[in-house]
Every structure is written in C-alpha cells, then in structure tokens.
User: Which sequence fits this backbone?
C-alpha cells in the first residue's frame, strides 16, 4: 500500500503555491506542427496572378480546418448541460479579426466552411470584416453595445447568462448580437502580422468549440528534404484542443490531414 508522508521542509513558495491554486480542472491540451509553406505560398501567388484576388495563409488554414473536420465529424462537437456531448450538423469556422485600430477583437463565423470553395470563403470573410471595421455589421454592433452597457460588477453574470441562453438553451438572439452557437466548430486566429512565430491561446468559455488554431508568421527555417537540409518558408501552426472532445490520437489524425492538405494546396481550392 502506498504511504504518504507530510513534506515538512517544503519551500515557502511551494507552500504558498499549494495553498493558492485549486486542483487542475482545465481540459486544454496544446500542440504545434511545422508545415512546409513552399507549395501553399506558390499556390497563393498563382491564384493572385490568375484572378487578381489576394488570398492569405489564414484563408488556407480556415479552409483546411473545415475539410479536416469533415473527415473526423466526431470532433465537431460541443459539451452542453454539464457533460452531454452533442455533434454539430454543420462545420462553421470562426475567424478572429482585429477592430478599432487593433484595440479590440471580433470575428466572423463562416457557416458550412467545408462546402464553400476557397474563393467564396475568402470573399464572404472579406465582406464581413469590412462591415465590422466600418461599423456596419449589425450583429457586432449589437453585441458591442450590449457589453458596453453592462457595469463591470455584472459582467461575469451577464456573460454566464449569455452562455446559458445561446449554448445551453440554443436560443437565437441575433437581434441582440448573440447568435446561436456563436463561434461554431473551430476558431482560427492570425497573429502573423504581429511578427509572432509561435503562440497559444486559451479557450473562451462562451465559445464551446473543440479547437482554437493560431496562425503565426511564416518564417524561413531549416527543413529536411531527403538527406539534405534546406531553408524553406515554414508555417508553425499552434492549436489548443478540448480534451473532453479530442484526445491525442484524434489530434494526431487531424494534424496529419492538415499536413496532406498543405502539401497539395489545390485540394483547398
């Protein structure tokens, strides 16, 4: 039988730490993968030459995530009612955007992102982003107005109430800036414009989505090509997964699918 002996000579910091923090309850797991961006960047350049429309790596990631989820529909789930797992019927990807001179954050949910060609997905996202930044997106304006009117001491209660209404009860309160299941199947956030090459983000409790993908800056890195080493543009994708829905094996299959899609970017068109 295992026996336990009190540690009497623990450091003052260790004693304080043991008393200060509660037992772990965060289900987040983290992972990152490097992707050779040579083919994707060439694909984006060729697309711009052929159509005159500029696409970005973030568009490719959003589309790739949607297609990978299509192959693993069991990951497209949410937790409701203190532990009931439910699968979404559609794959919706939420792309985060900076607003108000990069002092605030919002985003656009692209519904059925797996069913939309890359150009259509990008055009829809561009339209939503333009409206949000110009103050012409009704949903964003409603939610911003509602949050601004709540005193700080009621913010936690208001957020919890919003969570219950749109996630537990699945009420559609779009007119109040709170659509049903507001963040969808996955959140994709680009941080590359800030010169960041690796970063992770925490889950937003209100989101109830199983994964959050950060898109850092593409940087030149050494890359093994057969038995040789070359310097290639590398995209380091960083992900936070909800362990209640996604385990390591599922995350590995998901990452493998992303790797194959980026190796053949024509599959994302």
Assistant:
């Amino acid at each position: 039988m295992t026996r336990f002996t009190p540690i009497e000579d623990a450091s003052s910091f260790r004693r304080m730490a043991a008393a200060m923090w509660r037992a772990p309850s965060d289900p987040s797991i983290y992972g990152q993968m490097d992707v050779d961006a040579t083919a994707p960047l060439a694909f984006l350049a060729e697309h711009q030459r052929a159509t005159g429309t500029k696409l970005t790596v973030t568009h490719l990631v959003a589309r790739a995530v949607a297609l990978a989820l299509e192959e693993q529909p069991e990951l497209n789930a949410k937790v409701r009612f203190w532990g009931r797992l439910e699968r979404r019927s559609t794959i919706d990807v939420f792309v985060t955007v900076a607003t108000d001179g990069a002092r605030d954050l919002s985003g656009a949910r692209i519904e059925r992102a797996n069913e939309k060609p890359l150009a259509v997905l990008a055009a829809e996202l561009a339209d939503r982003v333009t409206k949000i930044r110009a103050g012409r997106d009704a949903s964003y304006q409603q939610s911003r107005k509602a949050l601004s009117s709540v005193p700080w001491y009621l913010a936690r209660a208001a957020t919890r109430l919003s969570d219950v209404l749109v996630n537990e009860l699945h009420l559609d309160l779009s007119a109040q800036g709170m659509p049903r299941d507001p963040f969808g199947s996955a959140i994709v956030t680009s941080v590359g414009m800030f010169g960041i090459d690796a970063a992770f983000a925490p889950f937003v409790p209100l989101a109830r989505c199983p994964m959050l993908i950060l898109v850092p800056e593409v940087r030149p890195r050494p890359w093994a090509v057969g038995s040789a080493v070359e310097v290639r543009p590398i995209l380091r994708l960083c992900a936070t997964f909800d362990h209640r829905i996604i385990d390591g094996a599922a995350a590995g299959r998901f990452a493998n699918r992303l790797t194959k899609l980026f190796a053949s970017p024509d599959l994302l068109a």
About this structure: Helices lie at 12-20, 38-51, 57-71, 118-133, 138-148, 155-168, 248-263. The mean pLDDT is 89. The chain is about 35% helix and 25% strand. Residues 184 and 267 are 23 Å apart (CA to CA).
